[in-house]
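User: Can you help me understand a structure? I only have the sequence.
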Amino acid sequence: MDTVKVSARSVPKAVAGAIAAIIREGRNVEVQAVGAGAVNQAVKSIAIACVYMNEENIEIVSVPSFAEIDINGEERTAICFLVEKR
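Assistant: Let's start by predicting it. Here is the structure, written out as tokens:
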């Protein structure tokens, strides 16, 4: 499974394009975000990816979860969104 990491400074349209490209290749993608700003950008990116995929008659869904990840030796809680075809 591919992983896309999103920050508060990520451009939603660019992230959505990456998500859509991975889904088009028939793979699932996990979108990871740490912090409120990053989660906001991730949710916008997934919504935009839904629009891109709907134009191709492909429906996608996302399932949120928590994950503990290591950032510079410090353990942080991330919100992860599993994005896959329905």
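Now, to help you interpret it: The chain has a mean pLDDT of 95. The chain has one domain: 2-85. Let me know which part you'd like to focus on.
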